[in-house]
Amino acid sequence: MAHTSPVSGYSSTGQIRLRSLLRAIRNSNVSVFYQTPNLIYSWAENLPDFWHLPWRPDISENELMPKDIASQLITAKNQLLATGDAQRLELSFPDKKNPRWYEFFIDGDRDEEGNIIGVVTTAVEISELKHREQVLKILLREVSHRSKNLLAIIQSIAMQTARFSGSVDQFLQKFRGRLHSLSHSQDLVTDSNWHGAAFRDLLFSQLEKYIHPKDPRLTITGQDAYLFPGAALHVGLAFHELIVNSASYGALACEHGRLTIAAELEPDGEGEMDLIIHWKEQTCPPDSTDHPPDIPALHKPQPDTSRFGSAVLLRIVPQAVSGTAHYSIKSDSVEYYLRIPHRNFDF
Prior knowledge:
The protein is an alpha+beta fold. It has helices at 12-26, 61-64, 67-83, 127-163, 168-191, 199-207, 229-249, 295-298, 308-320, and strands spanning 30-35, 41-45, 87-93, 100-110, 116-125, 197-198, 218-222, 226-227, 258-267, 273-282, 324-329, 333-340, 345-346.
């Protein structure tokens, strides 16, 4: 496959140097071609194997390369011969699986007067570099897309929190809490290389500030489903709203409260399985001495859907996961159901 120029006429040191350079080329991803000024090939070194062409010194450009590539190379070589300026091209060769990319450097072999007496073409394979560039572009587009989605979520949280806040201090307190919640969920998604987050990891990341996982008031059962990124971020927000309410007025606010969180699979009626998240609190009776203040006024028989927390639970999160939700608040209990279709999780 490799064809070298003769070494006769060189000194012993020159011959050793030439042989060493040729050996180095054979061990690299570099190919070298030499042509006369009328573009007749004289020799080539380290011709790529995938071309599978029998080499001969007078082979034509169109025999050696695909016609479209040969045309571009001939144009570049004629430009060199006309102007004396070296040329550079990046060209893609079809292959069985993926295209093979080469960077071509075309320069003149000059005599002592500076006249071009030959054309030297160096081809360096850059397929791996091109593949990395493509992967990087895909990743950057994905990061851009997800960043825009995240910014849209943050904007919605800011606007809705402001809408239902009576003062700047109240807004800042609630907004910071929701941002921290989103941040915890985002960390899990990022750590998984944007694949998502496990149900229990997501839940514990939101709970850890309020209750120890081994607290006897807390029971977690069911499937540890893997939520995909969009679902993970929104379910994390739902957990945050439920936990803050529970820590302020519900089961986590009293010594003898009980909180059970279950994640179970349920047929959707079309041969697929949906994930059902069931949040159930048993709070203390209104007349209990263990009950936090103002519970009767806050725990109305039906949720106040005009509040942002209820909007998150009943509208924003279900819509984001293409599911459904039910939220029930009674004097001594709180229940929340969220149905998540199979396309938003794995198990």
